What does this fold into?
Amino acid sequence: MRGESELAMVGRHIREGDIIVSRQRDLVRRLRDTGHDTQSAEEILNTYEWVQAAHLEHLHRLEIRRFSK
It folds into this structure.
């Protein structure tokens, strides 16, 4: 978003990512519970979790940079 600091942007990405990952986990659970194939849903979940890990790593790098000044 315009005018948003990098730290605020990463924080927003992490918050939004938490919601997305949670929803996808729920979807995988519902599919499994109703006997549906979960392969595609699990692959998508893995991708979302990978992206979320990247957001958390970005936050970690920002914090290191901020506190090392």
In short: The two ends are 26 Å apart (CA to CA). The mean pLDDT is 95.
